[in-house]
Amino acid sequence: MSHTYFIGVMSGTSADGIDAVLISTGDGQSTLTRGYHRGMPHALRDEILSFRQPGDNELDRLAVLDRQLADEYATAIKALLNEAGVCASDVTAIGSHGQTLRHQPGGETPYTVQIGDPNRLAELTGVTVVADFRRRDMAAGGEGAPLVPAFHRARLIEAGVPSAVVNIGGIANVTLISAEGTVRGWDTGPGNTLLDGWISQHQGQLYDAEGSWASTGQVLEPLLNALLADPYFSRPNPKSTGPEYFRLDWLERSLTGEEAPENVQRTLLELTVMSICDALSKESVEVVRLCGGGAYNTLLRHRLAERMPSAQVTTTTEIGVDPQWVEAWAFAWLAEQTLASLPGNVPAVTGAAGERVLGGIYPAGG
Q: Which CATH architecture has domain 157-320?
């Protein structure tokens, strides 16, 4: 049996770290060989988050950050290969999502920006890099997101079972897969981005482990209703969004200043739950599989199960895939698709005019 290695690497909207996975493919099957997480240096994370709103000297800062992030990705990939005992020369390609700084799919001039210089990454690792996946879909009239539903269809479903895969990263997105295999999907709204931002501001923590702080608070119904009244939630699908929209100042416009911080945290968790459940409320799904960082939030997972009693709510662990590595694996798979000249988008999900081969190819050096 002949096997080929691919690597997927990305840093999510929380920008708290870099996920890298080594995937072995062969005979139509893919196996996760190794996963590696590298924490993002604090100064680098602060600079990434600062780009969520306009600032001074952006062009120079962007160029520097683009290079610095590629260096961090390269360090993570080298550590991954070292732990796996695999040589860079044995890897066909790296699928690099990069770090999204801004995603603006609406307006007269839609655009999306991901950084992590693939030229430098190829040079530092000695491995061909496939990157810049989103812009080709946008050039074809799509929103450039979400892109993972194509991978969900390929790897995370049971044939004949109507399913939903819910990726709860900074932004949450759903993939709906019918019993016949048709796919739809969209971004439902904030996943962890507001939860992470609020606990960081009030507790100095990167995230609310297992929802423990939120569990000490109560849902503020007037606040929840005000947040759910945002036009994004009633927009028709397909649609996508980003943390540059669902920022803390978006939240603060609905606050009086008298709310107990733990009650706001609990309400933000319920906002994530409600927006996901509303997206699935008119769908006939038997199984809901959670992935991303939100899959580890015990309270969030419990509330989703309570609000969807007719479905089996589990994580991707049930089908042998650790929720932490799903999205990085998706970009390893997308790199494989690109090199095979196969499409990586789902037009029914992104709104593109048709299927497209995604990404640019940056060959390894000599």
A: 2-Layer Sandwich (3.30)
Measured CA to CA, the distance from residue 224 to residue 188 in angstroms comes to 15
Strand order in the sheet with 171-177: 183-190, 171-177, 163-168, 287-291, 312-315
Contacts 24+ apart (CB under 8 A), 61-70: 62/101, 62/115, 65/115, 66/115, 66/116, 66/117, 67/117, 67/120, 68/44, 69/11, 69/44, 69/98, 69/99, 69/115, 69/116, 69/117, 70/116, 70/117, 70/118, 70/120, 70/121, 70/124
Q: How far apart are the two ends of the chain, measured CA to CA in Å?
A: 29
* pLDDT tens column, 204-216: 998 999 999 999 9
Q: What are the boundaries of each domain within the chain? A: 4-144+327-362, 157-320
How much is the pTM?
0.89
C-beta of residue 135 within 8 angstroms of C-beta of residue 112: yes
- CATH architecture of the domain formed by 4-144+327-362: 2-Layer Sandwich (3.30)
**Nearest alpha carbon to residue 185 among 126, 223, 145:** 145
Distance of CA 215 to the CA centre of its chain: 25
| Distance, CA of 278 to CA of 280 (rounded, Å) | 5
pLDDT tens-digit map of 29-81? 889 999 999 999 999 999 999 998 888 999 999 999 999 999 999 999 999 99
Closest listed residue to residue 146, CA positions, set 106, 111, 186, 101: 186
Rama region for 174: left / alpha / beta (φ>0; ψ in -120 to 50; rest) = beta
**Domains 4-144+327-362 and 157-320 alike in fold:** yes
Given the structure tokens 């962890």, which residue do they identify?
A: 192
